[in-house]
Amino acid sequence: MHTLVPSEYTNRHNKVAGYIHWLILKHMGLQFTDKYCGHILERVINVNGTTVMWDVPVVTDQTLLAN
Description:
The protein is of the alpha+beta class. It has one domain (6-53). It has one helix at 6-27; strands at residues 44-47, 50-53. The protein is flat and about 35 Å long.
């Protein structure tokens, strides 16, 4: 079994999450680029009462080990 080093894992995770971010915006009709590879991730996008966030800490009632 191959184990990813932390930086490779984080890089892969961010690529997958970025693709999901692009799909959500595409589903909402906010497609900025035709292809995912040209997608620029914006931290916060507000449209018609819906907020899409990228890599933003979320405040919770409880302390979490991971954000």
